[in-house]
Amino acid sequence: MEINHGMVADVQIPNLVEMKGDESNMENFKFQLDEMFVKVDQLEQRLNEVEQFYLTANKKKQTIPKGNLAQKDKEKEKQISGFRRRQQDAARREAAAAKRMQELVRQFDTKIISQLIQHRWAGPFMEPVDVVGLELHDYYEVIEKPMDFTTIRAKIEAKDGTGYKHVRELYADVKLIFKNAIKYNDERDNVHVMAKTLLEKLNEKWIQLLPKVDEENRALAQDKRRKEEEAEAQLDIKLAQEALHAKMARELCIELDEVDMHLEELRETVLQSCRKMSTEEKRRLGTALTQLSPEDLNKALLIVAQNNPSFQATAEEVDLDMDAQSESTLWKLKLFVKDTLQVSKSPGSVAVNNTASNNQNNAAIAANNKRKREICVALAKSSQKKAKKPSGI
Fold it and tell me: What percent of the chain has pLDDT over 90?
């Protein structure tokens, strides 16, 4: 999210000694400005808080008041600490659940599988079916997943993480051994009968172990629900924070616009209250305009156009009659020229300007000189016109 908060950087007012009127008006202007700047400071602090919320790792961090930053650091540390604690608790619960489940797998192996493989009919089910040797050409067409006790034993003893995670997986594989034999062999076949008998024994043993399995399943389901609830709570908090800061951002935009509008109104009021500019001041202002760069000169002409819609600031030739401008426009121009020339003469900007001027090509220099000549001609024409009659000042 981006918020325009250039509130007072471009709001300039003349020195109060330039104003006309009584002291009460001046004090009133001072008081209103002081109030506005206090409000602006408060808004900027709130704005920094909103910007900090939306700040990402790839963006430059904004300055936050030290008090607010310390408080935020404490809150952040508290949130991180709570989150880590919940993560550690969840990890401990998962580790305990996995340990209990492995204990059930061990019990299934020792109490059920061990008894089954000791049965006198367990022989046909110990090794994978010899499909080639027995010439069972259609075996893989009938049986989708072959299974045997040797394969199951290898998976139980696996150390690479491919072992059984849940006892139900182990039960399903053992049951599959007998289901495959029942499915492939005819009912009158000995293997079919043996598999059916062993399957019944498997189910009898499984029923005895089932209460512990169900208890563990309930514990796993509870842990899963807890994780989901925690994730949902975190999401709700995040959404609430985003909604709160989005609302704050909208309100700040409205308030900042109001501040800009109020400051502009104050500025216009001050400018309108300024004394009339003398002829000599107008002449010096005209001379100062010729010292501006083409870019700054265009900005100055746009100031004139703001209060004079008929003035063509972008025309090839501009006739700027200083005496035809309102006092407000003249003072705006004076403030703009003064600030612009001060910036251009500052030590830091001299080096920059020198470097930039060295890089200018002939076309840019020619355009600058042409623009200055146009202004000089326009000022000269204005002076000639006014020389024929009094200026009234």
Answer: 25
The contacts of residue 101 (CB under 8 Å, 6+ apart) are 165, 166, 167, 216
Residue 392: closest CA among 230, 247, 270, 282: 282
Render pLDDT for 267-297 as a digit per residue (tens, 0 to 9): 666 666 666 788 888 888 888 888 888 888 8
Question: How far apart are alpha carbons 225 and 236 in whole angstroms?
Answer: 16
Q: How is residue 261 written in tokens? A: 């509008």
Coil, helix or strand at residue 44: helix
- Please state, in angstroms and rounded to a whole number, the distance separating the CA atoms of residues 231 and 237: 10
Query: Would you state the structure tokens that stand for residue 77, as one six-digit string?
Result: 């540390």
Q: How far is CA 135 from CA 124, 186, 252, in A?
A: 16, 16, 83
Q: Report the predicted TM-score, pTM, of the whole model to 2 decimal places.
A: 0.42
Helix axes 190-272, 66-108, angle to 10 degrees: 180
Locate all alpha helices (DSSP H) within the chain, ordered by sequence.
23-54, 66-108, 114-117, 139-142, 149-156, 167-184, 190-272, 279-289, 294-307, 327-345, 347-359, 362-387
Distance CA(167)–CA(213), nearest Å, equals 8
- Residue 50, SS3? helix
- Write the DSSP string, 109-121: IIIIIHHHHTSTT
3-class DSSP state of 274: strand
Q: Which two tokens stand for residue 101?
A: 């489940």
Instruction: Specify the amino acid at residue 361.
Output: N
Under DSSP, the state recorded for 125 is: G
- 143-153 burial: b if 16+ Cβ within 10 Å, else e: beeebbbeebe
pLDDT digits (tens, 9 = 90+) for 47-57: 777 777 766 43
User: What residues contact 355, with CB distance under 8 A and at least 6 apart?
Assistant: none
Closest listed residue to residue 264, CA positions, set 334, 328, 340, 337 = 328
DSSP 8-state code for residue 63: P
User: In terms of residues, how long is the chain?
Assistant: 393
